[in-house]
Amino acid sequence: MAGNSFGQAFRITTAGESHGPANVVIIDGCPPGIPLSVEDLAVDLGRRRPGQSHIVTQRQEADEPEILAGVFEGRTTGTSIAILVRNTDQRSRDYGDIKDKYRPGHADYTYDAKYGFRDYRGGGRSSARETVSRVAAGVVAKKIIALGFGGKVIGYVKQVGEIVADVPQPELVTLEQVETLPDGSPNLVRCPDPARAAEMVELIERMRKDQDSIGGAAEIVATNVPAGLGEPVFDKLKADLGKALLSLPAVLAFERWL
Amino acid sequence: MAGNSFGQAFRITTAGESHGPANVVIIDGCPPGIPLSVEDLAVDLGRRRPGQSHIVTQRQEADEPEILAGVFEGRTTGTSIAILVRNTDQRSRDYGDIKDKYRPGHADYTYDAKYGFRDYRGGGRSSARETVSRVAAGVVAKKIIALGFGGKVIGYVKQVGEIVADVPQPELVTLEQVETLPDGSPNLVRCPDPARAAEMVELIERMRKDQDSIGGAAEIVATNVPAGLGEPVFDKLKADLGKALLSLPAVLAFERWL
Amino acid sequence: MAGNSFGQAFRITTAGESHGPANVVIIDGCPPGIPLSVEDLAVDLGRRRPGQSHIVTQRQEADEPEILAGVFEGRTTGTSIAILVRNTDQRSRDYGDIKDKYRPGHADYTYDAKYGFRDYRGGGRSSARETVSRVAAGVVAKKIIALGFGGKVIGYVKQVGEIVADVPQPELVTLEQVETLPDGSPNLVRCPDPARAAEMVELIERMRKDQDSIGGAAEIVATNVPAGLGEPVFDKLKADLGKALLSLPAVLAFERWL
Amino acid sequence: MAGNSFGQAFRITTAGESHGPANVVIIDGCPPGIPLSVEDLAVDLGRRRPGQSHIVTQRQEADEPEILAGVFEGRTTGTSIAILVRNTDQRSRDYGDIKDKYRPGHADYTYDAKYGFRDYRGGGRSSARETVSRVAAGVVAKKIIALGFGGKVIGYVKQVGEIVADVPQPELVTLEQVETLPDGSPNLVRCPDPARAAEMVELIERMRKDQDSIGGAAEIVATNVPAGLGEPVFDKLKADLGKALLSLPAVLAFERWL
C-alpha cells in the first residue's frame, strides 16, 4: 500500500532511512512559478538538525539539500519536485550493540514482525531521520501558503513535563522569539516564554543525568487560513492535521484548538 | 478532491446529508465469503440511533439498512458492497428558524464560504447524521477483524466533564457492561463504571437544564491486533486511527495509549 | 484495493451487480450549484437501456434513477452525490443453466479464481449492467464540462465488422443524427452515416441469425476541451481516457486521434 | 493532483525532466527480501539508453543508477525504495533555438497553457527522458513477478510502418532474439523476426534521410500471469496496462490480445 505518500492536492512521497545513503521527497501539486532554492530549504533543515545543543540527540549531519527536479531558473515548474538530502553521519558502528535487541518505544519488533528482517543499524525507515523529507516539503508548503493567501505557520514548545509555557497570544509569536532568548543566546527548547524555557532546559538536563527522557507538547499556530480548507467528510482539516502529526514517530496525541 | 473516502485496503466512500433522502456507503476491499445480513447491521445502527433516552439528541428514526450490492446468498462477494439507510425523520420544519443563522461549533459558515450555499435545514453533509454510514461500514470491518484474527473492538465513555470512569482493565470490558447497568436498566451514557455512569447522567441532566452541553472522552479498545498493521511512514496505525476519529464532527482530540 | 473508484478531481465510486438489488454511484468532486434532476439523468439512462430494438440485448428494465444525496433545491451542493438505479428485471431464472459453466469472453472463471465463488445468476459485478452507474455519473460530468467551458462530448458507432462509417467532420455530428435516421425512424446502431447504418443493421441481423456476434468501433468526440487537462506524467488525458474505456467489459482497444 | 504516481499495491512516484539534474523514482509496495542491486538495474537501463545506433535519438548518457533507499544488505526492506539516475548529457545549448517555438507532436504548447512557462531546453517533464524512472521501477516489478509466480514479461517491435513481423509464438520469444540477430550483430530495431527486422531498419534509414520519422507497434507478452490480477471494475488489468502504456509520450493506441 502507498504508506509513503501524504496529501492530495499537495502530495508528498518520501523514501529514506536513518542509515541508508539518502532521504528523498517528491512533491506533487506545487503550483508553477514559486521561487525555490537550496538556500530556502537550508533554513528549516538547519533548524531541524540534531546535535545543536547538549539537550538533544547528538547526531551530527550537514543536511545539505539538493533539488533534483521541478525547478527551472529558480522557480517551480508546476511538475513534480524532488529534493535529496544525503545521510553523511551514518555512524552505523554505534548501533551494532542493538542488532539483536528491541528498543522500547521503537518500531524494531513491529518491523521484524511485518517484514521479516530490518536494518539493525538504527530505526531504518521508522527513524525520525525521515522527517528531513517532511521539513523540506514543509518549506515548499509554507511558501505556497504565504504567497497564496498570506498565511503563516509557526510552531513552538508549549510544555515539557509539567512545565507549561504562558503564551497569551499564540498568533503573535515570532520565529525570533522561538529561536532566540531575550539575551541573544539560542532558545534551546524553542519555547517563546523565556522563564519557562529556562525551567524546561533544567528539567531536561536533570532527566538526562538520570538517563531518562521526558515528554512534552508542541503548539502549532497557523494564521490567515482561508475558510473552507479540507474536504468533507473524512478529509476535514483537523483530521488531516491530526494524521500528519500522529504519523511522526514520537507524537502520541493531537488536540485542536480554535 | 476525494474527501468522501477513507482507507486503502478496506476503503469506504459515503454520501448523504441530515435532511436528504438517504445515506449510503460503498465498501471496497471486503474479502469474499463474510456472512453479512441486515440483521448484523441493525445491531450497531440501533446502538447509534439518537432519541434513545432523554439525555441525547431527540431525532427519531428507524434506521433500517438495505444491502444494495456486494452480498450474494448471505455472503460478501469480494466486490464492492453498498448499504443504504433512508432518512425518515427529516423534520425540516424544525430547522427553518436557523436558515439565516450560523450555529456556533457547526460548519454552517464554513460551508457557505466554501460552496456558496448550503442546505439550511440542518448540518447537511456536515451533520453527524453521516455517521450512520460509518457505523454500517464498521459492522463489516469488525466482522473481518473477528474472522481474520480473532480481534475485537469495543468503545465506551471514559469521561464526562471532570468525571472520569475507573476502568482498571480496558481489555476486559464487555458490550454487556457498556449497554446495561448491573440492575438491568439501560446504561444511558455507556460507561462501564456504574457509579461514575450515574454521576455522568446527573451532570448531563444538570447541564441540559441550564441549556448547555458538556464534553467528554471515549475510550476504544482493540484486542488481538496483529503486529504490523498500518504502513510506514504516513499511514501508521495511530495516524489512521487519529484521522478517522478526528474526522467525526464533535471530536477535537485524540490520544494513543499502548 | 480501491478498484471501484475512478478519477481524482471528479471521482466516481460504484457498487452493484447484474442481479443484485440495485446499482449505486457516489460522485465526489462535483462543484456546487450545478442544476441536476432525475429528468436530466433519465435521458442518457434511456439511451443506454438494453432491449430497445431487436439487434441488442433483450433485458427489459425501466432504469429509473433516484438522487439519494448531494442535491438541494435542484442544485448540487458541492458535497458527494449519490444516485441509485434499482434492478427490476433480474430474471435470475434465465441464467440458472450457466451456474456451472464458464461463458467464453466473460469473467466467470476469473471471478471464481479470484474470489472462490460468484453470483452464478449472471455476470455479477463483471456485468455491463454496472455501466448504468457510469452513465448516470457521465450526465453530471457532461453538465460540468458544458457549464465550465462550453465543452460537448458525443459518441457514435464508427464501425461494425468491416463496415466503416464515413464521418468527414466528427466535431459537427449531432445527437439528433446519432439517434434518428433522416426518415425519422430510430437509428438502431447509432451511426451518423445513414447508408452505413443500414448496412450495419443488416450485418448484425445476419450474425444474429447465425447465433454469432460481431465487433465494432465507437468514436467519441469532445469539443471545446481546454488545453492542459490531465496531469503529467501518468495521468495524461489520453491515458485516463484510455483507462476509462478499457475498463468497460467489451472494450479491447483504444486509439487517440488528434 | 497526484499525476506523478501510478499503481496501488505496487506504486511508483517519479520526478525529473530532460534537462534537470536527475530523474528519481520512489517505489512503494515492494515486498521485503527481494535481492536488488545497481547491476540489476543497469541491464534494462542500458537497453533503454538512446544513442546506441544510428537509427535512434542521439542523446548520449551513462544512466548509472544509484539506490538511495529501501535496500539493506542487498535485499529490499519492504519500505519505500528510491532510485536516482542523474542527467549527464544535458546539452542544453542544442535546444536554445526552440526556446520560442512549439514543436509539433510535443507538449510544449500544452505546458505553456497549463503552467504559464516551461523549461525551453527540451521537453522538460514531458520528455521521454522520464521513462528512465519507469525502466528502473520495471526492473523491480519484473523481479517480483518472477519470484512471486514465475512470470515473465518481454517486449519487442512488432511493426514499423507497414512492415509487420511474423511472430507465430509470442510466448516463446526470448530476450536473446530481441537483442541479437542470428549473425550475432545487435538487433537494432529489437524485432525477433530477422527478415522483417532488416526491412524495418532500411525503412527507418530511408525516412531519416527524408528528415521524417515513422510509427510502429510494440508487442508485450506476459507469461505465467495468475488469474485474477486487477480489480473490478475500473482497475481491470487491461485498463491499467492500457493507462500505463498510453501515458508514454509517443504511445497513441493500445490493444489487448488474449
Give the SSE layout.
The structure is a homotetramer of 258-residue chains.
Chain A: E1 5-6, E2 11-15, E3 22-28, H1 38-48, E4 65-69, E5 71-72, E6 75-76, E7 81-86, H2 108-115, H3 131-149, E8 152-160, E9 163-164, H4 175-179, H5 194-209, E10 216-223, E11 230-231, E12 235-236, H6 237-246, E13 253-255
Antiparallel strand pairs in A: 1-2, 2-3, 3-7, 4-7, 5-6, 8-9, 8-10, 11-12
Helical region count of chain A? 6
The rough form of chain A would be described as globular
What class, by secondary structure content of chain A?
alpha+beta
Proportion of helical residues of chain A: 25-40%
Number of strands of chain A: 13
Strand content of chain A: 15-25%
Strand order, biggest sheet of chain A?
1-2-3-7-4
Span between termini of chain A: 34 Å
Can you summarize the main beta sheet of chain A? 5 strands, antiparallel
Whole-number mean pLDDT of chain A: 92
Order of helices and strands of chain A: EEEHEEEEHHEEHHEEEHE
Spans of chain A of 5+ residues with little confidence (pLDDT < 50)?
A: none
Biggest protein-protein contact in the assembly: A-D, 46 and 46 residues
Radius of gyration of chain A (CA) equals: 19 Å
